[in-house]
Amino acid sequence: MLDIQQHILTALQPWRDRPSFCVAFSGGMDSTVLLYALAQLAKQQRLPALRAIYIQHGLQEAAHAWPAHCQGVCDALQIPLIVLDVDVASSASVEQAARQARYAAFAEHLQKDEVLLMAQHQDDQAETLLFRLMRGTGVAGLRGIPFTRSLSRGHLVRPLLDLSQRQLLDYAQQQQLCWIEDPSNASDEFDRNYLRHQVIPLLASRWPKVQQSLQRTARHMHEAQQLLDELAAEDLQRAQLEPVLDWLNVPCLNMDSLRELSLVRQKNLLRYWLTPFTLLPDSAHWISWETLRDAQADAQPIWRLHNGALLRSKNRLYWLAECWLQTPPALNLMVHKAGRYALPDNGYLQVAGDVTAPLQVRYRQGAERFFIEGRGHRDLKRLLQELGLPTFVRSRLPVIFLAEQPVALANVPALSHPQLQDVHLTWHFAE
Fold first, then answer.
1. Segments forming the whole domain that contains residue 380
2. Residue 224 domain-assigned (yes or no)
3. Best label site of 58, 142, 265, 383, fewest CB within 10 Å?
4. In the 8-state DSSP scheme, what is residue 261?
5. pTM exceeds 0.90
6. pLDDT per residue as tens digits for the range 118-154
7. Helix, strand, coil shares of the chain as percentages rounded to 5?
């Protein structure tokens, strides 16, 4: 029989210098095997400190007794246990909502550089790949469950991912372990249970090594995604632009560089670039990218996405977080001295220098005219166009008035009236 403990020890070798291991312990067979095997290894090997976390979803009556079972197992193994209650949001997919709540709890309680160990195995990988295939996933989705990834301040590692459930069951029976049988696992109402009970056994009757084959597919897709990411990184290096102004730190790309790429490379680059900012759209919604890209040159098309939007302006493609898309409330602020002044939903204004007369701070309403030495009075709208300020910034920049006359614009010292040459007005927008 495979030496489960040696397999786990080998899988965790790169992580043994971490301060602690935390097992995601559900009380089921898989996580019980993982926790027990680690406890035995800790008696023979020098391992990081070991603890466990149990997540209580409260989705079924039987689950109320499970924390006590998990506590008993951990007490017997002399491993500290934390029990966390989570609220599962109402959703069409209870499985997905419970998963999101679970991972959010793990991320919140994981310590710095700690390794969260989860007990997913080869059968779970097979279910995941088939489930994602039925949803029409792409290369990224077909990578399946990763062996490791970062999570909050630490890391997530799955040392059992190359083992089958049968191998884990053999070990559990040999060690005479006790575990919880979740009644919901017997119901084919859930998609993954249907795959586990109906689809995979049928496939295995024809192709006995279906789980191993799907695991290889996941590895191949992982390599393919690495190549796509490397290509996207090269394309991004050519397309990425510095901020149009040093104080405007908004991610942006050069539209000309994007248009030089084929459509599939454009989409690959955008997926890579947008991943840290938003949930990526499904394939049916990518037509909105082509609409934005091909709009008239003088247009400023916008594509709304989760938590923000893509905006095209002056041949630049901007990612705007949701806070940029809201209109700040009307402002009427009086400034009598230097200092920091909060602007509701719009960061703050830093005033430095000698303020000799009360200044009024508002946002532009239209028709404001500035006196520019050597040029006379000029319309603010035209001045903003000359400065190349993106439209999404113009309505947020604080305009400073003296005796009802506009005399300065925050962050644009060139527009300051001679009377305010010694006053420095800096606007900071904190996302």
1. 333-428
2. no
3. 58
4. S
5. no
6. 999 999 999 999 999 998 899 999 999 999 999 999 9
7. 45, 20, 35
